Amino acid sequence: MLAILITLTAGASAIGWILSQSWRDRRRRNKIRAKPFPKEWRTILKKRMPYFRSLPSDLQLQLKKHIQVFLAEKQFVGCDGLEIDDEIRVTIAAQACLLLLNRQTDYYPNLRQILVYPSAFIVRQQQRDANGLEWHSQRLLAGESWGQGKVVLSWQNTLDDAADPADGRNVVIHEFAHQLDQEAGDANGAPRLGEFNAYPVWSQVLGQEFAKLQAQAASGEPSLFSYYGATNPAEFFAVISEVFFEQPQQMKADYPELYQELSRFYRLDPLNWQ
User: Fold this and answer.
1) What pLDDT score was predicted for residue 128?
2) Which structural domains are found in the chain, ordered by start?
3) What angle do CA 17, 22, 28 make, to 5 degrees?
4) Its pTM surpasses 0.70
């Protein structure tokens, strides 16, 4: 009986701590959001994020408040000699926070650091096959999302993608879509949808379009989506998220069911921003 009482007391204490921590987080974030948005940051938004002006006024306000919290909580680290300044921080935060609009959010809770390289960076990998044979490979990347609390980005690619908000490519949106996916565990193309009964339709629609993209990649048939999305379901989700935000009109016309699923997940309709 004593052991049961101790267990129950410990459990209640843990729940109480979690609730109090959540309350403290909300209070701290409310204080951050109540502060005026710096004029210098607004200038950066206008310069580096062309579609900011296309957002409805309520979403502009939401985005600015999200940026304030994001920048207060996440650490930016410059790599290969890159010095982090407000232009880098605000430009990246603005695009990352697009994915949080109209949603209850804990601001990418698993994410602690954003590592920023001046340009595309080389990732070296060591692999071993079933026979025990090891080999080394290297890839040139514009971005990478780690499950260990880090996102890695190329600043030049970030700038290039932000400058053209209608080309269907955005490395920040791509990598932070992975972060949303990873909130539910390993990235597998099935982020937290909020309602359990939403998963069957999500799986059916995304699975069908993923298979279609794989077939298009194999045959060389043109697609609205990058063939990179055919790599696996996680990359498919990240790739279609880029297109959802940047080419919503064409996506809705060509893939209406897929567009509807993403619109329901993100709680946004970017067609209204045109």
Assistant:
1) 57
2) 35-176 (1.10.472.150), 184-274 (3.40.390.10)
3) 125
4) yes
